[in-house]
Sequence to fold (222 residues):
Amino acid sequence: DAGITQSPRHKVTETGTPVTLRCHQTENHRYMYWYRQDPGHGLRLIHYSYGVKDTDKGEVSDGYSVSRSKTEDFLLTLESATSSQTSVYFCAISGTRNTEAFFGQGTRLTVV
Amino acid sequence: QKEVEQDPGPLSVPEGAIVSLNCTYSNSAFQYFMWYRQYSRKGPELLMYTYSSGNKEDGRFTAQVDKSSKYISLFIRDSQPSDSATYLCAIGAAGNKLTFGGGTRVLVKP
Fold:
């Protein structure tokens, strides 16, 4: 699994509550990504990081924030969860080429 | 129009047949071309990576890129039931961000 650990693997939360998902890598790669995967939309990039404290928005960043205080950890926060954020969230890291992505096992988030 | 188009399938084939998958894209700036395999409730797994037009072979898998037509393909020879999965194409440009197709579900029947 390319040395990527996502936690939690499953979570059910209520609308309006904050949620933080964690991605931890042991590969020391520079780039880290958060995607969400939904039926009919495929994988869509939420945010990505190109170094410690260096982050940028993806195509579906509204309602999400990220932080990267250490090379190995990339956190995704939903400040106030909504039902539209029910999804499967994948963290990914770049490889040695810096152009591909290696994925974690995913976090299944349900907002009720 | 999506930047990367991929038929969602499902594509059902008998064991031993050749599976043919493809994606079209619209942005000529795309430089890197990948195929991922995703089993149910698992993360996508990188299968093939290429950055040039032409063919690349790895075991039973062949990736084909035609930049002039903005068309990429993946062929799976001698398909096995274990090849049943969703296959996603991914295309990248400078800047390290990938754009994914929606995925094609493949069913290989014994």
The two ends of chain B are 37 Å apart (CA to CA). Chain B touches chain A through 22 residues (CB under 8 Å). The first strand of chain B starts at residue 4 and ends at 6. The mean pLDDT of chain B is 93.
